[in-house]
Amino acid sequence: MKQTIEIYKVSEMHQMGDLPKPDHPLVSVIYNRDLKTVSDLQEVKIINHLFTIIFKSSNVCSSFSYGRNSYDHEEGTLVFTAPGQVMEFKNGDADNTEIDPDGWTLVFHPDIFRKSDLSDKMNKYSFFNYDSNEALHLSVKEKHSIEDLLQKIEQEYSQMLDRHSQHLIVSNIELLLDYCLRFYDRQFFSRTNLNSDIMSKFERFLINYYASDQAHQKGVPSVDSCAKELNLSPNYLSDLLKKETGKTALEHIHLFLIDKAKNSLLNSTDPVSGIAYSLGFEYPQRFSNLFRSKTGMSPTEFRHLN
Question: 3-class DSSP state for residue 229?
Answer without folding.
Answer: helix
